[in-house]
Structure prediction request, 285 residues.
Amino acid sequence: MTHHSARNLAAAAALIAIGATSSAAAQETGVRTGWSFEVAPYAWLPSVNANLRYALPPGLGGSADVKADADDYLAELNFAAAFAATARYDRFSLLTDVMYVSADAGGSRVEAADILGVGRNPISSTVNVSGNTNLKTTLWTLAGGYTVAAGSWGNVDVLAGFRYLGIEATSDYNLAVTLVGPRGNAGPTFGGAGRLSGRDDIWNGIVGVRGRINIGQSGFFVPYYLDLGAGDSNFTWQTFAGIGFQNGWAGVQLGWRYMSYDQGSSSLVQDLTMSGAYIAVNFSF
Prediction:
């Protein structure tokens, strides 16, 4: 973790803690005692925008930049599975969220290449004859939480933990141009049709806040969540909010979720955003 990232994360944690403590002092106590559990399978249908930097084969050296956008998620989805779970004891909680997605980005394109590390050569979109990128993404969040305020109106929890992003990327390209290195055609070249691949494992510490706001006694509620983090990433954050309905031990919610990663220049994933609607059902016991 860089010093800059560590300072950002510490500042975010301090602000969340100060705000939560102030809120707790002004709220009534309404915390459920003893153990309780919740399991929530869900589906998230995001558009995916990624800027990738692949290391070229040893003979070529350098790297190639690929932009991958998957906006028509259902048409390009290969497989997805996701669930979240929470265990609570009095004010303390442990939450986890796991998601695996395999999706294609049919409109991906090579934007630049650096042969033998001598400098980046921009590549126009007009010479990208075709391209496709497959992204296999695993997201895992694990965090401990503490309820700082609760009542008939809802609850506020602060949390701290980590989020893991594992990503396998494969990009097929077809360029109507050939780039040459410093030795011209006598040296290594890049162009035509080919495939690039890479993998990245990204770990970040996170702090955040989550909870729900009840809409009277109707059974409807507004769920909310926000986390900020750093570590292997320069910065990452995630948020979601929506509308839900709870009837005894079962409930459902619809909402919008957004996640962002800002990486360093040496990473496979330069930056990544995922945003879109989600639907979840939850079972409490």
About this structure: The first strand starts at residue 35 and ends at 55. Residues 10-28 have pLDDT under 50 and may be disordered. Residues 3-221+251-284 form a domain with the Lipocalin fold (CATH 2.40.128).
